[in-house]
Specification:
Elements: H1 2-10, H2 15-32, E1 36-37, H3 48-61, E2 69-70, H4 74-103, H5 105-110, E3 117-120, H6 124-136, E4 142-146, H7 151-161, E5 164-167, H8 173-178, E6 186-189, H9 194-207, E7 215-218, H10 222-227, H11 232-236, E8 238-240, H12 242-261, E9 266-271, H13 275-287, E10 292-299, H14 302-312, E11 320-325, H15 331-339, E12 348-352, H16 357-370, E13 375-380, H17 385-394, E14 397-400, H18 401-407
Parallel strand pairs: 3-4, 3-6, 4-5, 6-7, 7-8, 9-10, 9-12, 10-11, 12-13, 13-14
Antiparallel strand pairs: 1-2
Helix pairs in contact: 1-7, 2-3, 2-4, 3-4, 6-18, 12-13, 12-18
Length: about 425
């Protein structure tokens, strides 16, 4: 962590330190090569520590108490003259910079931004993105915009990711101009308030008409995101939902390979039809429609959820769809499913994707005993070492939303020329 912190804090090569060291060594080398000074002629014969002391004094006094260089060869005198002029200029410029940063630290840091990443929000989605970004690019400047002061989160963002943290309202034009949005490589609106993110995107497009392709909007509500599909903001910006990234990763990294291995078309049982279940089905229809024979949906209020999804997501008629209303923890639901002959086993994929991690894992173990040839997937919210161990022991695919999101962040969001 400390090594990471140090590499981020520089945001590039430490030129000021190198230049200061150059001036110091120039003066020290000149003294060692026999250059004397009119007010301190005995410096030439002094110890290395004394010469180092006088070399450092140039940054404060600029040689006014040492007098004019003499003796030695021309190159050595030139080095000392260079240190005479360079050391006080560097010290003065550094002092002025410190004063300016003390008087207006945020403005000073922001006005120099170029080709930077702006991340609006400091929640789990923002942190996941920052972790992936820093693994691929350790030096790109990052600005994180928070809506309120949180000292601990602010320090975490600074120390872990080398981010410049600012507090402000991204729907105010003046504040957006302070962020130098026209120079940004990417602007990621990852706040939990979807309406606010779309509002910020609209203002940004009005400020900089060509900025749309550089804006990425996270929308927490699938219904709202689908309803906004035909708006100007959505057409020019990239919009996504956390569950879309997770579902796309799950289907492509696990389910497609399974479909290709089975001879017959497959049966997919979605135990849980919230945002995650809906996006899995949407992704299956997009890239695996030819592999589907039957999709079974199990949910407490399954009919209502399906009706809601039907409003915005067109279900394909190229596979059979069955709806079972009930709790996945209740044996009656699974008994009905088995009696109706919807579960064959070897060509069946069970996705336990409810928001209840314990029920997902417990039910997954029960299903594995009942249907040893099926693929069983159990979802958790965050990464769980215990769930992963259980999965390895019992041939269950344990997945977490956070892990799937990190693994499936598009390369265009983290790789820059």
């Amino acid at each position: 962590m400390n090594a990471m912190k140090n590499s981020y804090d520089t945001n590039g090569f430490p030129w000021q330190t190198v230049i200061a060291l150059f001036f110091f060594l120039s003066a020290l080398l000149a003294f060692e090569m026999g250059v004397g000074v009119s007010e301190r002629p005995d410096v030439v014969d002094s110890s290395i520590l004394v010469k180092a002391y006088y070399s450092l004094s140039l940054f404060v006094l600029g040689g006014t108490d040492l007098g004019v260089p003499f003796g030695g060869n021309p190159i050595a005198r030139a080095l000392l003259w260079l240190a005479y002029f360079g050391s006080p200029i560097l010290a003065a410029s550094s002092l002025i910079g410190v004063l300016l940063r003390a008087l207006a630290p945020q403005s000073w840091a922001l006005r120099r931004l170029k080709d930077h990443i702006i991340v609006v929000g400091d929640g789990e989605m923002a942190l996941s993105y920052l972790r992936v970004l820093r693994r691929h690019n350790a030096k790109i400047p990052i600005v994180v915009v928070c809506s309120e002061h949180d000292v601990l989160r602010r320090e975490e963002l600074k120390q872990s990711f080398g981010a410049q943290v600012v507090v402000g309202d991204v729907t105010h034009e003046f504040f957006l101009n302070q962020l130098r949005v026209e120079r940004a490589s990417k602007i990621l609106l990852l706040d939990n308030n979807s309406m606010r993110s779309y509002e910020a995107a609209s203002i940004l497009i009005n400020l900089v008409p060509t900025i749309g392709p550089r804006i990425i909007i996270h929308c927490g509500s699938l219904r709202f995101m689908r309803a906004m599909e035909n708006t100007r903001v959505t057409k020019v910006c990239q919009t996504f939902n956390t569950y879309h990234l997770a579902a796309a990763g799950l289907v492509r990294s696990h389910m497609l390979h399974r479909f290709q291995e089975t001879r017959d078309k497959d049966v997919v049982i979605l135990a849980g039809f919230g945002r995650f279940g809906q996006t899995i089905l949407e992704e299956l229809q997009h890239c695996a429609i030819e592999e589907l024979d039957t999709v079974v949906i199990i949910e407490k209020d399954a009919h209502r959820r399906v009706l809601v999804a039907d409003e915005q997501m067109e279900f394909s008629g190229r596979y059979q769809r069955y709806i079972y209303e009930g709790d996945i923890s209740h044996p009656e639901v699974w008994d009905r499913l088995r009696e109706d002959g919807k579960v064959d086993g070897d060509n069946t994929v069970f996705v336990l994707g409810t928001g209840h991690e314990e029920e997902n894992l417990r039910t997954a173990l029960w299903i594995r005993r009942k249907y040893p040839g099926a693929m069983v997937i159990a979802r958790s919210g965050k990464e769980s070492k215990f769930a992963s161990e259980v999965g390895l022991e019992h041939d269950i695919i344990s997945i977490s939303i956070a892990e799937l999101v990190r693994e499936n962040i598009p390369k265009s969001w983290i790789e820059f020329e």
